[in-house]
Fold this protein.
Amino acid sequence: ERPDGWWRSAVVYQIYPRSFQDSDGDGVGDIPGITRRLDYLAELGVDVLWLSPVYRSPQVDNGYDISDYQDIDPLFGTLEDLDELIAGAHERGLKLVMDLVVNHTSDQHAWFVESRDPASPKRDWYYWRSARAGHEPGTPGAEPDDSPAAFAPSAWTFDPASGQYYLGMFSPAQPDLNWETPEVRSSVYEMMRWWVGRGVDGFRMDVINLISKPAGLTSSGPVDPGSAGFMQIANGARLDEFLAEMNREVGLEKNNLITVGEMPGATVDVARRVTDPARHELNMVFTFEHVELDKQEGGSKWDLADLPLPRLKGNLAEWQYGLAEAGWNSLYFDNHDQPRAVSRFGDDSPEHRVHSAKTLATVLHLHKGTPYVYQGEEFGMTNAPLTEIGHFQDVESLNYHTLATAAGVTEVEVLRSLTRKSRDHARTPVQWDDSANAGFTDGTPWFGVNPNYVGINAEDARRDPASVFAHFQKLIRLRHELEVVREGRFELLLPDHDQLWAFTRTLEAAPAGDEDQPRALLVLANCSSTPADLPADGLPGLAGAVLVLGTHASAPEEPRLAPWESRVIQLG
Ligand code: TEU
């Protein structure tokens, strides 16, 4: 059952199936492996499981290139395996969300194969365009191409058979669907209804703000040069229309499904519009702004830059304020596309790893919105020792290495960027215990297990009351129990402090019928590896305040916070 607004008190756990748990010894995680771990997930206390794609796929982008939306890739199992997982999740009160990847299909999808024939009625299911003055459609006269794809030199691929190019914003293996074509939309909605019928509880929608593209891509004419760049092609004029239509046609709201739209390049304004309940589009969106701050202005993710704390906490606060009156935030530091949070935003040294993982989680989970836990984040998994190009497998990382070295960037510089930001860091197998391959597989793992699994694994964490796992359990419980965590108004304090992350959550009144619930919380976090002193002013009075959850045994008013110490304090 899914009561109205249930997702506002939910915590979502993201599973990247190929790296979660292998059950058949082929070295790749699979669906029966997930089913085996349901009790662990129920013990953690999360409410929803989001599966990264398990559909049939050539696996060019690890499943984000789908060749059959209504079948399971044999790598991961069968539809029956998935039915068992859904049933097993529901038995434990867990919900299951599928990853909806409908901005593009695989180039092996039957729709695209048919679309290659210019005479096919499916020709306009994709973006086919003729060359412009002998150049690719998006680049009038410019050479080389200035229409980069995310994982390939160009977003346009020439098809000799038909003499035209097709658009693939990510890679040639991922041709973009043309959502201007009504049959594309109705076919997607039919597929979504089929999944709702199989008992799924919602969808995470991959790059969903790309489905409506600027005008230059909807006419038969050439692409408008201004829209050639990767992210200028998002947030087109019909986005809201398509999302509202999807909501109606699939019954997203009618069935109280949870929906989260992944929206690279979306601003607070776009999010406020798309998540405004009055518009019946989506429940929430994933923003990319905070995970694109640690790069040089105007550069790519590979152009590294340090990230002063005021910029990070200021961005999350901007999204809190922007969606305070209408709409809803999602909260994440980690996912399958980002390096591990404790290595990126915390300090993964042996001395500080546990405290910084707990404190980052405390800060994130005490913001207003739905928190997302990425597999392994709940016990502080770190980046892996990926230091030479042979260590990397991700299409995005390998493409960057190829393009950057060809453009003259030194191997050392390219590897420094990859070592810091590659998506591969999030794809090392989950470290379950200290047995061979960390209990992930009894075969040869598709990707190397991080050697630090002996000391960092779920089994040890489950047994240790002082572990990161135990802290996540407490944070999740706070969200389930306290209205002020779910609905309290957010206010950032000490915005310019470069060590302390401090904010309050406040209810106008205690929740009806539960008067002894806290009405106001203060979160204090030292997000640095050196001690931090509370300023004399700028914080509410702490005398007599109660420590609700802390990483250390300090009293709320203790003026000094240890490195990576955080406190959740009840003010009233
Ligand atoms: O990611 C969208 C996206 O923009 C990311 O590719 C991001 O820009 C990049 O990974 C940052 O390093 C979604 C999926 O989450 C991702 O795994 C897919 O590769 C991509 O879409 C294409 O489906």
Notes: The radius of gyration is 24 Å. Residues 140-145, 220-228 have pLDDT under 50 and may be disordered.
